């Protein structure tokens, strides 16, 4: 008998979590935390499978939750990540602005720097990444700046940052 891969195991766990949350929220409208968790799981599954239908399902869940709950910061950030992943950059910027103060949080600032990079505002992107790292030197933020440095031709600087991110 073939052992399931880590990917298959993770998809199975996500599927079970989605089913459990769906049972808890139907027909009762979910609270913000539950709605966010449910939408995140749908987004995470879609990101793993790259299935367009699953991205649509995640987007519907996010939009429905925002319509019911309002512009909860975690939901708006999730919506911005989904729009960014689908290369809908203008929409991702609007999503970040939807929740008051979201752009001031490290996760919002990091995504804003990603948007600046994608839109060719390289100096703003560099400053954004460096600013986020000052406040939140996590592996993903270090890797973002490393990616930026590699794109700009600073291979040595990128390698140092990737090594630092690996240590995190």
Descriptive account of the structure:
It is built from nine helices and no strands. The protein is mostly helical. α2 (32-49) runs parallel beside α4 and α4 packs antiparallel against α5. The termini are far apart.
Give the structure's gist in a few sentences.
By secondary structure, the chain is mainly α. It is built from nine helices and no strands.
Terminal CA distance reads 37 Å
Structural class: mainly alpha
Number of helices: 9
Q: How would you sum up the major sheet?
A: none
**SSE arrangement, N to C:** HHHHHHHHH
The residue fraction in helices comes out at over 70%
Task: Show unreliable segments.
Answer: none
Shape: globular
Evaluate the radius of gyration. 18 Å
In percent terms, what proportion of residues is strand? under 5%
Instruction: Give average pLDDT, whole number.
Output: 94
Count all strands and give the number: 0
Keywords:
168 residues; mainly alpha; 79% helix
Furnish the topology, listing elements before pairings.
Layout: H1 6-25, H2 32-49, H3 52-69, H4 73-85, H5 89-98, H6 106-118, H7 122-135, H8 139-151, H9 155-167
Helix pairs in contact: 1-2, 2-3, 2-4, 3-4, 4-5, 4-6, 5-6, 6-7, 7-8, 8-9
